[in-house]
């Protein structure tokens, strides 16, 4: 084999082997042998992190959408159609087949299964065995730009929770508009109630004034003394 001489100003080499980055930490006058082997450590750790984070999300989702049949009381999102669709779409994706993503077409084939309560379980031994058998198939399943799991999951989360036209964004806009409309109604009712309050205060003032006059008249009548009979007789 021929000798290839390479140099780098940063001591890093990224184009020697496709997908491999080398970094020289120290110079040496003796030949150095480098062995490169495939490893499933990163992919296993990434899948485990995904499963853990998803389970945290799902448990919180179930708490917020729970409806207690004994007390007939539901949590804040118990009957919310947006929340119901979000959970349905996510569950459907996780249980579907990824046709076009290569030899592996489901999460179950790499050790991810859906429990009865909707959470995920991960058997790392299944993924490691599949990776040892065909690492390219595992990579294609996750990274295929059209049919891969990462691509479809990203598209789903964007459609559900993206900034502009996603399901949650539209729901937020609708709730914001409803809030603004309710605020206008509240202001209108406050104005009307204040006007009614002023009318009632005026009515109360007039009524109180009338009662005061009546009381004054009664006091005047009470002060009138009857004419004595003896006085009338002396006058005769």
Major sheet description:
2 strands, antiparallel
Shape: elongated
Beta-strand content bin: 5-15%
Total of DSSP H or I helical runs spanning 4+ residues: 7
Output the structural class: mainly alpha
Tell me the series of helices and strands, N- to C-terminal. Answer: EEHEEHEEHHHHH
Number of strands: 6
Question: What is the averaged pLDDT score?
Answer: 81
Are there runs of 5+ residues with pLDDT below 50, and where?
none
Query: End-to-end span in angstroms?
Result: 161 Å
Radius of gyration: 41 Å
Identify the strand order in the major beta sheet.
Answer: 1-2
| Helical content (DSSP H or I, runs of 4+) | 55-70%
Compact summary:
With 236 residues, this protein is mostly helical. It has seven helices and six strands; from the N terminus they run ββαββαββααααα.
Polypeptide structure, described:
The chain is mainly alpha-helical. Helix content is about 55%, strand content about 10%. The chain has 7 helices and 6 strands, in the order ββαββαββααααα. The protein has helices at about 40-65, 80-95, 125-135, 135-145, 150-160, 165-225, 230-235; strands at about 10-15, 20-25, 65-70, 75, 110-115, 120. The chain has a two-stranded antiparallel ribbon with strand order 1-2. The chain has a two-stranded antiparallel ribbon with strand order 3-4. A two-stranded antiparallel sheet has the order 5-6. α2 runs antiparallel to α5 (about 150-160) and α3 (about 125-135) packs across α4 (about 135-145). The chain is elongated. About 10% of the residues are buried.
